[in-house]
Amino acid sequence: MSTVRRVAAVAVVATVILGLSASAAQAHRRTTLFVSPHGSDSAAGTLAAPMRTPQAAVERLGRAGGTVRLARGTYGRQRIVIDGRAHVAILGSPGAVLDGTGLKPPAGRSGMVEIRDSSDVSVSGLGIAGYRTKALSAVPIGIFVTGSGHGIRLAGNHVHHLGNDNGTLGSFDINAHGIAVYGTDARAAIADVRISGNELDHLVLGASETLVLNGNVDGWSVTGNVIHDDNNIGIDAIGFEDTISGPARFTGVNRARHGLIAGNRVSRIISEGNPAYWEDGSWCNCADGIYVDGGGSIVIAGNRVDASDIGIEVASEWKQGRTNDIRVSGNTVTGSRYTGLAIGGYDRDRGEAYDIGVFGNWLRGNNTLRDGSPEILLQYYVHDTTISHNTVISTNPGQTVLLHRDAPAGGAAKNARLVLDHNTYQGRAAAGRELYYWNGVERRGLAAYRAASGQDRSSTYRRNR
Questions:
Q1: How far is the C-alpha of 250 from the C-alpha of 240, rounded, in Å?
Q2: In degrees rounded to 5, what are phi and psi of residue 28?
């Protein structure tokens, strides 16, 4: 399928999942309960006589569902848990805040708003903050969707200033999320998920991600969100972790798939200072703005990623896993500290990336660390991939490093049919002095790189002063 047709097809899917289903809309019209920090749980739940706690209102809705409307104000030390329910909407008025300050997150994953094995559920307009821990056993999350279900809508929420404050250097047991969707049932996915227009910032995440879809999550979109100033990955679509264990772990059900990541703004996603990323006496600059790690059949389109460690990465962290059928198009990536775009496993023991299309992106001024890293990094086991019609601009006044492909590892099939062409390269070096690395060997100038690689036959290089 062509890139245009693929984007159009995914857009149709996204349109379908934008709205509430008819059954949900009917349920929401049937029952509405109002909640206020100044109300009483013995009250009628009307606008004039509101209840006090959102959880009590959810319980009062019963199995028929309905809407819980939160008035402006702070709801301290309160969580909302929706478990095994359907047709529930949580709607916050401007200024409605769930504040977890003083709550002790239990062991394992837990959310300030937690949706378990539920369908036709929406959460919108809430501020969520203050849910923190120093316990390695606890994983605090702003909004947590888990189990199975369908028709999940998370829109217009502001999740900020929460996370795991444990300071153990080098520990990947430090974890937290802003928004997390974990499909943990091998028999039934979490499907038809819409995450749009949220802001997620100032999150302390350890080894985990700001906004993540992990495991059996099938048919989803992440659009129009603003994600900034977090100390690990901005948006991540994950596969093959132990979210689902046993025989199904390295199968197609244990991966986020059939998704759209579009129109998001991601900035200042930096792992320096994050204790989980202290390695061998220094910080790993390895937090991606947008990351696909084991996901499949995903379009990444029209996003802006700025001033993060890595702009966009398409890879797999598991030898048995893979990332495939990914289209990266029309994105703008600027000011990355390490590299603008990375594809493939980061060492010889990682999984493969194939059927990747990278078209019409604009990469400029990446590698602000000035350590000789490139605008585009092709790592291990990249094959059956096309990179074309992109504009790639180095602003490094010292070295103009535009592309680096690692020396291939493994068999020929896992390195074959890689095509780069019709790209526009620019930099501050005079023509013939810019750098490309092919199979780990430096090539100076476009002509030398073409001769060594056979790539970029119709591409151009221009000096920018």
A1: 5
A2: -65, -35
Give the separation between CA 116 and CA 59, rounded to whole angstroms: 14
Residue 373 within any structural domain of the chain: no
Pairing of strands 441-444, 435-438: antiparallel
CATH number at residue 155: 2.160.20
Q: Which of 171, 112, 172 is nearest to 144 (CA)?
A: 112
Q: Specify the pLDDT at position 351.
A: 83
Q: Name residue, tokens 């690395």.
A: 437
Integer Cα distance of 224 and 221 in angstroms: 10
Q: Which two tokens stand for residue 419?
A: 């095509």
- Tell me whether residue 386 is in a domain: no
Buried b (16+ CB within 10 A) or exposed e, 66-91: bbbbbbeeebeebbbbbeebbbbbbb
Residue 339 pairs in a beta bridge with: 310
| Number of DSSP helices (H) and strands (E) in the chain, helices first | 4, 44
| 160 in Cβ contact with 205 (< 8 Å) | no
Residue closest to 235 by CA, chosen among 195, 183, 291: 291
**Along the chain (465 residues), what's the average pLDDT of each consecutive run of 10 residues?**
38 39 46 97 98 98 95 97 98 98 97 98 98 98 98 98 98 98 98 98 98 98 98 98 96 98 98 96 96 98 98 94 97 98 92 96 97 97 98 95 96 95 98 97 98 98 93
Answer yes or no: is 314 within a domain: no
Q: pTM to 2 decimals?
A: 0.93
Q: Which domain holds residue 57?
A: 3-308
- Structure tokens given for 103: 């709550």
Which pLDDT score is estimated for 29? 54
Split into its structural domains, the chain has a count of: 1
446, part of any domain: no
Find, among 344, 342, 213, 367, the residue nearest to 288 by Cα. 342
